[in-house]
Known about the structure:
This protein is of the alpha/beta class. It has two domains: 143 residues, Urease, subunit C, domain 1 (Roll); 328 residues, Metal-dependent hydrolases (TIM Barrel). The protein contains 16 helices and 18 strands. Strands 1, 2, 3, 4, 5, 14, 17 and 18 form an eight-stranded mixed β-sheet that branches. It has an eight-stranded parallel β-sheet with strand order 6-7-8-9-10-11-12-13. A two-stranded antiparallel ribbon has the order 15-16. A hairpin with a 5-residue loop joins strand 15 and strand 16. Helix 2 crosses helix 3, helix 4 packs parallel to helix 5 and helix 5 runs parallel beside helix 6. 52% of the residues are buried. It comes from Rhodotorula diobovata. Its cofactor is Zn(2+).
Amino acid sequence: MLAAEDVAWVLRGTVLSSRPDRTLSILEDQVIVVDSRGFIAHLESAASAGSKAALELVETGKVGEDKFVDLGDQGWLLPGFVDTHIHAPQYCNAGMALDKPLMEWLHAYTFKAESRIDRDPHGLGARVYERLVQRMLENGTTAASVFGTLSVEANLVLAKAFLDAGLRGQIGKVAMDQHSLPTYVETTSSSLSSTRSFISSVRSLVAPLAPEHQLVEPVVTPRFVPTCSLELLRGLAGIARETGARVQSHMCESEGMVNVCRDMLGGKSDVEVLDELGLLSSRSLMAHCTQSTAADLALLARNGTAVASCPLSNVYFSAERQFPLREAWHAGVKCGLGSDISGGYRVGLDENMRWAVGVSRLREGQRGAVRVGGEGEGEGGSSLAITWQESLFLATLGGAQALGLDTDRRVGTLEVGAAFDAQWIALNGKRSRVEWFDLEDEDGTVRKVTTEEKVEKWWSNGSEADRRAVWVQGRRVYRQQS
């Protein structure tokens, strides 16, 4: 057991965590000890000798009561959510104009919002980003892959907002040199130069911090193929190789986007071009991929490229076809969930978990029309529908795998050695929408609602009202106001 001075937190109660096989682990009456560096040092039943020793540290006052959390019999701890795709400057527009076609929406709303923030990064930009990160924490998000704007300065404001809030961020300065507003576009050379500058600046920003507290990293971010010349894409691939930075972009998001790319690229798809230029690797993350073919999924799997699935956004912008999630898993593609603010209107991942299940059930209902490669794309011919437990995997460990955080920082799970990125859910608040009733059978036996059934009810009806606190790397970054 740790010495008292090395203990940051002691928590007791039920612990939930997704397993690599996408099933859900539920461990009741556990004791977790978090060390001073923010890692889980102990996780065992409260009846174990180690757990009793930890509780004794609290009972004897060697560890202060302010460092002890009783999760209660109506609550549990689970990993923080990992948002694999969010556009920070578009938070201004969240919930607006979702009836517009993708390209019209970009030009009429998105590019304008981003350019306004670039013109006023320390005013409007700071206000938007400070509010956004607080909303993300309130919704249980502890890590995110983030698109910014064109400006290095505005993106540094964004990076600092994440650092100040204690939120993990893989943040990208957007690169685009064509097919945008005349007032919101870069030259190829300036885009490459500013991308290098941003990577260097972010790394300098976090360099003085201990490795476990370097929560923000820069990401090479071509917006998507239509807005990037081949010269720019080639240059960005070179920067990613030279610097070791991760890559994020959009890919085969809608039928219209696929057709535009083929018209621009002499019949080639954006998937083919990104692969040829070296932008699809084990350190790459592609958003949407709703139009993926079986060959595309096989290519992503071979390259180790992950997908950020954004079901809420895709029902608006890719309604004719949704991401083939079950087939992607079967092919070996790492997948997570993204809010896609503001293509999606909800900051948290709760709605995206629900939509992921709903969309998959619709795909299963239309299985003959939607399978992407003939017979057997599901695991052993299994259903295309996913379970709510599998959607919870997508929002936690699956997202961490997609961002490479499961190996770099042991994020996305609650186990000894993992970073303590967690959220405390409690269902006994006055504003909770989650209710249950223990029913009496005819013979007088009372059937109590199980913990897993309570979790499912929360998955279906939960909200911010049920989130008592959030931690990132052992630091409590959100606490619900009573």
